[in-house]
User: Fold these one by one.
Assistant:
Number 1:
Amino acid sequence: MRCDGQMKYVSLLGIWFWGETSHVARASDLLIPWCTYTDPEIAHVGKCEDELDRKGIAYETLVRQLKDVDRCLCDGVDEGFVKLIMPTGTQQIVGATICGPNAGDMISEVTLCMQYGITVPQLAGTIHPYPTTQESIRQACLGFNKYFKNPQGAALLTLKRFMAERDADAPPPPPVALRPAAKRIA
């Protein structure tokens, strides 16, 4: 590892990091995504399940199969996945593996979330273009709220309020009046 006197850049085996690096004690502390350009591509960032098992850290995984993503259906992709790893009881992503087309491009979004502490519910609430393969990351995060693991999530609170209002003894809303069809002029 080589760095300038002011720690403004770090060079690690030909990889350059610009910006503040004084918070990094060792090169192994850097958050470095990697990708293997095979078919399908395999990309990873952060911790893997084996590493957490060895350290005795309980974790949960959120997985989205690419065959269930609309863009992948359109493109004929029938294999691949997005897997996010987070310690049990937290909302922070500590590792991710993506296997599929453009995995090397897709891992950057997860790397950004890990670097800046963006949580799973925050990522789930981020609107992605539709249909894109990238949306599979957001859909994996939606699984976190789907199983009510985050009872204070904004989308879930809205749903709970709606259901409470619906189930209350309030009168049903008035029927919608339809306009008569316009007369055709010959």
Number 2:
Amino acid sequence: MAAHVIKFCHFFWLLKHWLDDHSLFPISLITNELSFLELIFKLLLLLLLVMFLGRPSLVQLPFRALFRCLHSSSHHHQHQQQQPKLVLGIETSCDDTGIALLRASDGAILAEVTASQTALHVSNGGIIPPVARDLHRSAIDRCVGECLKTAGDISARDLAAVAVTLRPGLSLSLLVGCQYAKKLSAKYRLPVVPIHHMEAHALTAMLQYDQLRFPFLCLLISGLLCSK
């Protein structure tokens, strides 16, 4: 009997953390008026009642199935924590759709894909914002897929965060990247890192010069964008 009680408490503790971590059903919703110990006590009474009725299988079978599921989820979560943290970068500030995957620990770029719109805009005599927006929309999903595949068949579930250009730039183009980043964030529960376009240009110097440290002086010239 004691073994069943211990397993039940362990199961409920795993269930609580699994529900909280996955935001499916926060345990606080059912513990507003009951303390955690009171809730466990009442569930224990229910478990013992069913067991003493001579039908332990009614409780044991579903508990065993859920227990295995929770353990599997816990092991999967631990496996993900051991993997290197990967950040997906999305750039759609103007007329090129740029996607890159980097390793957060050392900033190494594992893969990058760019879909250029230059040829079409040259034929139009300049960048037309609605046209640039539509081209971003048609290219961004393909670029993300190619980038993840080039990096070694990485899945979006392996990502630790999504970084996306927030400003400055063409508003219609920026909106495409931001919306895509929000979609990935909602689907895979990823944090979104907003990136200032001009600051990012300045920081690319650190990719070329490993020994460069803050503070450093940088001359940044832009022929199209301005920023406060």
